[in-house]
Design goal:
- With 377 residues, this protein is α+β, with helices and mostly antiparallel strands.
- The protein contains nine helices and 19 strands.
- It has helices at residues 2-13, 25-36, 98-118, 142-151, 204-217, 265-278, 300-313, 328-331, 357-375, and strands at 39-42, 50-55, 61-67, 88-89, 92-94, 125-131, 158-161, 173-175, 177-178, 180-189, 193-194, 231-239, 246-247, 250-259, 283-291, 294-295, 318-320, 337-340, 354-356.
- It has a six-stranded mixed sheet with strand order 1-2-6-3-7-18, with helices on one face. Strands 12-14-10-15 form a four-stranded antiparallel sheet, with helices on one face.
- 45% of the residues are buried.
């Protein structure tokens, strides 16, 4: 199994699929799935390619979810090996997307092949939801596919996302939820003028300092058993013309909250706007909600993944909800149980991104065991 997974991973890595350009990765996967008897549905939206593939048409539906797109490679001269050469050195597979997440995709495909060959008349449905825009805007990928499926009352019961969840050892972490993410783009208005005549101007930076102190020290919540407390970070601040003798007329502040299930986006919006009014600021604020928090409590999917890792990898994973967002946030809106389980994340988005070939083989076995536990009766 290891050889087959690594071979497919190499073929995927060799396609320079910088988001959202798929570069034929999904077609390569689709050809293999079609040979197994999968029904293929292409769902392109704008410049994003999406594939929805199913084997079977009964419940429960267990879907493998992933993305074929990768982040840019940066300065190629910094790489020890060409980033799309898929070089193997000392059993490590190098290349952009090796860990995030073409290795996982390859393991998923091989796991499905093995399972279906052994169980051609299996119960339920094995599905694949693959997109090419997870690393970019995430506007025309999984979220649009989910909207399409929900509009026609199609359901995913269980979903396994192949994001690189492991930290020190393969399978040491299962992501069973993620915090929500909301960004505020705030414009505080003042009156531009000459620094020598402050009485004729109104400096928005000076006016905003008390508000910023309250915003950055506010205790949103204490977290809970599954999530750490909500956190806020200022990402960007800009004001002025660049000249040292001009009082700025506007202050731009961009801040982001990673929030747990103790608050929601409406509470966040109303709390911030109350602060702004309290400090008598003239402002405009635009909000961008990129994902609501989701949580999959221990149940059939979580328990199946834990047992499979114990059997195949001899490790008992920890359930964790830390980190950024993933496409799992969209699939969770369907009421599905969602987990993320993939290879080590220590080199993702870095120069010399790589993944252990041995780990890819083990991962495929784990995925296959999960299929067996979910679908076999």
């Amino acid at each position: 199994m290891k050889k087959e997974v690594v071979n497919l991973a190499q073929q995927l890595i060799q396609r320079p699929s910088i988001s959202p350009d798929d570069q034929g990765c999904q077609q390569l996967i689709a050809q293999r799935l079609e040979k197994l008897g999968f029904t293929l549905e292409w769902l392109p939206f704008n410049d994003t390619l999406n594939l929805w593939a199913k084997h079977g048409n009964t419940s429960p539906v267990i879907a493998f979810a992933g993305h074929t797109d990768v982040v840019p490679v940066g300065d190629e001269s910094q790489w020890d090996y060409p980033p799309f050469s898929a070089k193997i050195i000392d059993d490590m597979l190098y290349g952009r997307g090796a860990a995030d997440m073409k290795g996982s995709l390859a393991a998923m495909v091989i796991a499905a092949e093995e399972y279906i060959k052994n169980n051609p008349n299996h119960q339920g449905t094995v599905a694949f939801l693959i997109t090419s825009d997870e690393e970019a805007a995430a506007k025309d990928g999984t979220v649009r596919v989910v909207e399409t499926l929900m509009a026609r009352n199609e359901k995913i019961d269980y979903c396994l996302v192949g994001e690189p969840s492991s930290t020190a050892e393969l399978g040491d972490i299962i992501k069973n939820g993620r915090r929500g993410s909301i960004t505020g783009n705030l414009y505080i208005q003042g009156i531009q003028g000459h620094v020598a005549y402050p009485a004729l101007a109104d400096n928005p930076v000076h006016k905003a300092i008390p508000f910023l102190l309250e915003l950055t020290t506010y205790q949103w919540d204490n977290g809970n058993d599954f999530f750490p407390p909500t956190s806020l970070q200022i990402a960007n601040i800009q004001a002025g013309t660049g000249a040292n003798n001009v009082i700025p007329g506007e202050l731009y502040i961009q801040f982001n909250l990673r929030y747990c299930t103790e608050v929601d986006d409406q509470i966040i919006k109303s709390t911030v706007e109350k602060m702004l009014k309290k400090h008598h600021l003239s402002y405009r604020i635009d909000w961008n909600l990129s994902g609501k928090p989701f949580l999959t409590k221990p149940g059939k999917l979580v328990n199946s993944a834990i047992t499979s890792l114990q059997e195949v990898a001899d490790i008992t994973p920890k359930l964790d909800t830390s980190g950024g967002t993933s496409d799992g946030r969209f699939i969770a809106l369907m009421g599905a149980e969602v987990i993320e389980l993939g290879p080590l994340n220590r080199t993702i988005h870095k120069v010399n991104e790589c993944v252990s070939c041995q780990h890819l083989g083990v991962l495929a076995q784990v995925y296959q065991r999960i299929l067996e536990r979910i679908l076999d009766k």
